[in-house]
Amino acid sequence: MTRVLMTGFAPFGGEPVNPSWEAVSLVAARRDDVAAVELPCEFAASLPALRRAVEAHRPALVVCAGQAGGRSDVTPERVAINLIDARIPDNAGAQPLDAPVVPDGPAAYFTTLPVKACVAAIRAAGVPASVSHTAGTYVCNQVFYGLMHLLATEFPAVRGGFVHVPFSPEQVAAAGKPAPSLGVDRIAAALEALADTALRVTEDLAVTAGAEH
Ligand code: PCA
Predict the structure, then answer these.
(1) What's the CA-to-centroid distance between 1 and ligand 1, angstroms?
(2) What residue segments make up the domains of the chain, in order of their start?
(3) 77 is catalytic
């Protein structure tokens, strides 16, 4: 039985792979309670694909993952904003500028994952992690905002959120330029720890995860 829907993204920006999808598919291969769906890195197609996946699987928890090249750890996201400002075109060639994800939607949604408890659990599994306060203004933030809007308006009992993951070592090696990386097996371990924590913990830890910038 599916309890958790996990999504990862198709490769984008000239990369041959996307570690978010590689890790999500690894978790689903290991666990009966996790279904994995790959989302297109396309503004027009990503949210319809997410809606289809939620309607098909009817999970208790949705965890969407995406690649954040340059980040050095696994970062559960706290805030989704109602803004698209694409620095690079998506995989369909679209590059929206200063558009809302949902016209007339609220300015932002908070995750309903206990992100501080998730970070503690990921660290306890031996994987570096920290809370992030921005998911950017590209397709990942669009999916995060669209997910939170969908759950708030149509599936209020379902919890959900977004997590960004670093490049894999194979990507960095192939690119030939220095950048932080994390193995896909470690990213998968982090996603499992995050999902298990989110299923179990309803009230987040009262510890700081704040940042000055
Ligand atoms: N990362 C991009 C989009 C797809 C992905 O994996 C982002 O952070 O917006």
Answers:
(1) 29
(2) 4-200
(3) yes
